[in-house]
Amino acid sequence: MALTTGVLEYWHRTHGWTFTVITREAFVPVLEGHPAVRAVVGLTKEELRFPRLLGVFRDLAEAHAGKGLLDLHGTLRTRLLSLLWQGPVRRYRKLGLERRLFLRSKGRLFRDKLRLWNVPQRYALAVEPTPPPRSALLPHIWLSDEEIGQGRRLLEPLPDKAGIPPIALHPYATHPDKAWNEVYWRQLMEMFEARGIPWIVIGRGTGIEGIPASRDFTNRTSLRETCALLRASSVLITGDSGPMHLAGAVGTPVLALFGPTTEEWGFFPAGPKDRVLEAKLDCRPCTLHGKKHCDRNHACMRAITPEWVMSALDG
Question: Where in the chain are the domains?
């Protein structure tokens, strides 16, 4: 969802379009304040289950009869909505076949094609004959002045020198094999402490024990409060994750640690100050989404050491 924000803004700016967005209820806050979004339909978990989903989609198709549908998801659910839709339908270039053949061929097929466009550019191809540059489609989340101030206030209890933006750490992952080793996270935190670098932990997951409460925002903030914390931070260090895109959407540089997934999938951060650390191993990528369990003891993530991260920050 975060990656659609820049594309919607681009179409609003270049075509004058506004949008009604259909998404999961949990993602609605991402679009709050977006100048191109006039309405958001947030679907609950119950509404997304069959057979109720069929009725929900029929109602949506009837309510928006004659209007165009842009399918920027490309799943079975959105295909069903497309079949019921009473107006023109356009879909984005998901490149699903190319991605699978690239994976099965161990990177021999379609590498250049997959690297040509990132995901926001593939979204843009639902409308544009040629996608604009990546810099024109960067994600954007609009925070109010009050939200920005709240982010700063949340950081006031930090034991560090006031006024120095902290480094935000996101040690969690939906798929465990994409997560950096907890031992490495602890070593990095110790390096920060030794050098007097302020830091915080953000995100949702099973927390790392022993982190001081003033630094640990795990499971404590809403989506937009997390965005406000990221806005108040100097950089985010994370794996391939949702917060990686949220940070970019509020203008905070990202240092991303990539392992099972690679640039070909299209999700690398694209901001002017964003950086990616990754090990050049012949087993990468091993999966489309990071779900597959690693049989090489997570060699790709273990190769990214805390010292490498510190060197990248210093650089």
Answer: 2-129, 160-314
Q: Is the peptide bond before 171 cis (omega within 30 degrees of 0)?
A: no
At 98, is the secondary structure helix, strand, or coil?
Answer: helix
Amino acid making up residue 310: M
CATH superfamily of 160-314: Glycogen Phosphorylase B; (3.40.50.2000)
What pTM was computed for the model? Answer: 0.96
Helix runs in the chain, H state only: 2-15, 52-63, 76-84, 96-104, 111-116, 119-124, 145-154, 182-195, 223-231, 242-249, 299-302, 306-314
Please choose, from the candidates 122, 125, 126, 121, the residue with its C-alpha nearest in 3D space to the C-alpha of residue 138: 121
Q: Under a CB-based contact definition with an 8 Å cutoff, are residues 21 and 37 in contact? A: yes
DSSP state of 173: -
Instruction: List own/partner pairs for 188-192 with CB under 8 A and 24 or more apart.
Output: 188/237, 188/306, 188/309, 188/310, 191/306, 191/310, 192/167
Q: Tell me how many degrees the CA angle 69-72-77 measures, rounded to the nearest 5.
A: 80
Is the peptide bond preceding residue 35 cis, with omega within 30 degrees of 0?
no
pLDDT in tens, 227-257: 999 999 999 999 999 999 999 999 999 999 9
Q: What residues contact 251, with CB distance under 8 A and at least 6 apart?
A: 231, 271
User: β-strand 235-239 against 167-170: which pairing, if any?
Assistant: parallel
Contacts 24+ apart (CB under 8 A), 48-54: 48/24, 48/77, 53/77, 53/80, 54/80
pLDDT, tens digit, 9 for 90 and up, residues 155-207? 999 988 777 999 999 999 999 899 999 999 999 999 999 999 999 999 999 98
Q: How far is CA 33 from CA 9, 36, 219, 245, in A?
A: 12, 9, 24, 17
